[in-house]
Amino acid sequence: MPITALLEQNCKLYPEETALVELNPAKSDDRRITWRDYDLVEPANVGPYRREITWRVFNEKANRFANLLIERGIKKDDKVGILMMNCLEWLPIYFGILKTGAIAVPFNFRYTADEIEYCVNKADCDVLVFGVEFIGRIEEIADRISHNRLLFYYGEACPRFAEDYVLLTSNCSSRDPRILITDEDNAAIYFSSGTTGFPKAILHNHESLMHSARVEQKHHGQTHNDVFLCIPPLYHTGAKMHWFGSLLSGSKAVILKGTKPKDVLEAVSREHCTIVWLLVPWAQDILDALDSGALSMDNYELKQWRLMHIGAQPVPRSLIRHWKDYFPNHQYDTNYGLSESIGPGCVHLGVENIDKVGAIGVPGYGWKAKIVDEQRNEITGVDEVGELAVFGPGVMTCYYKDPIATAEVMDKEGWLYTGDMAKYDADGFIYLVDRKKDVIISGGENIYPVQIEDFLHNFEPVKDVAVIGLHDSRLGEKTAAIVEIKEGYTCTKEDIERFCLKLPRYKRPREIFLEPVPRNATGKIEKPKLREKYGALNLVAAENQID
Predict the structure, then answer these.
(1) What percent of the chain has pLDDT over 90?
(2) Which of 35, 124, 206, 394 is the most exposed place for a label (fewest CB within 10 A)?
(3) How many CB atoms are located within 10 Å of the residue 117 CB?
(4) Which domain holds residue 156?
């Protein structure tokens, strides 16, 4: 069954119930805006800018865009790009694309003009829908990408080089185009994070999308009464695939445009959210605000919040222990996945296994996992480090138009080799050790940055930390720790060094920088940027020593 069938099902079962809410705390408004039949209803409500749509209107909006695309000649396997910030229109556009049998291609909102052009060409996009925030970037490349491509603009004051999405879709039929779609049909192309160069285009079919919905609902038990708070960008598989649990249960979701602790707690309180997916920095920010007294839980209605889960990066044990101090009744889960495995859930901790915090868990619903050595022979020993591989219905079809790169990470049986180094504990739970490419080899010893990062997270003043390898003429590489200190704390390099005396000597950072830790929109540490920055500093220091 294609994923679009779930939207049509919810439209029939819950036509006038709220499907999606958009909250924008940065934009105040004294209206509660509700899109029902495209009319504004304005009951008094002083607070953040708020819009919502019902399941019926969601489906109608998707149908209108699908019919527009079909009118313009878009057909099965054509590609339609989405370059928009999170908003109420994002998911109807995505589903409108899928309803035509075309392939949805979400774009990272941080892409430069050159990266946008690269991805448009890499994915063979026939259409690009973009929002107001991207006018300048698209204008730079419009002459080069508009040849034989449609550019649709969502927002006010449509630029000259594009067509007005709202105006065009308002004149299209809201009836389902009834294009036959099968599980094997291609559905979406997601781009890899691009942390090692230009991103790869990851192709998934409808079976992958449906499996991700089943996995999410199976792991977190969404019912029709749950309310999911969605904060991460929808272009990424993580946010969208977690929302698929809401789609499967026909439950409300809230799209929050902002990550400030006050905004998160207010959204949970106002909208009665029951499930929130956070990235580590956002969870830490909430704890810091509560610790400092900047926020008080007494000011919010939080009793209904039942589940907090985290993904996209290793989770410090200390963070979850502290979280439970404030939220002792919360269920907690962590989810492991990658865009090549249709996002989160191929390995997950499970809400029943909170005593195993620190592990990424066990194979998820419908998934298999194994750890292999360099020859891809399976490893079963406790604490023996190897590469994690996963197998299941959510594994990508391929890297689009890149058979060589596909063959590097997928074998003939369909196993996906993740590039993440992992190990088992005595109970069979999987622990991430590090990215294969991030392992530091110093004096012949393999050093896994995640282990040092996890250790430093236990030091009270530390808010965030990244460990990288820098060139060393004697050892080959040496460890460097970039440490971000919590607001209100005083901490010196010497304090960090004293704390690290508990580590084996070879694991102790030889360089310490007290600086902010850069993370991308999906919460991953941008280690290539750190290596470039601190590698250059390291080179200058070495040259000065020679002089």
Answers:
(1) 66
(2) 124
(3) 18
(4) 4-258
DSSP state of 519: B
Pair 375, 470 in one domain:
no
314 with 453, same domain: the answer is: no
* Per-residue model confidence (pLDDT) at position 312: 63
- Is 286 domain-assigned? no
Task: Identify the pLDDT of residue 150.
Answer: 95
CATH of the domain at 199: 3.40.50.12780
- Angstrom CA distances, 406 to 122, 304, 330, stand at 15, 44, 40
pLDDT at 361 over 90: yes
* DSSP secondary structure string for all residues of 353-375: GGGGBTB-BEE-TT-EEEEE-TT
278/308 Cα distance (integer angstroms): 7
- Distance, CA of 507 to CA of 523 (rounded, Å): 25
Nearest of 140, 169, 149 to residue 105 by alpha carbon: 149
Which CB contacts under 8 angstroms, 24+ apart, belong to 160-165?
A: 162/130, 162/138, 165/65, 165/129
CB atoms closer than 10 angstroms to residue 357: 18
What pLDDT digit, counting tens, does each position of 477-526 carry? 899 999 999 988 999 999 999 999 988 888 899 999 999 998 876 667 88
The token duo for 530 is 């750190």
**Residue 271 belongs to some domain of the structure:** no
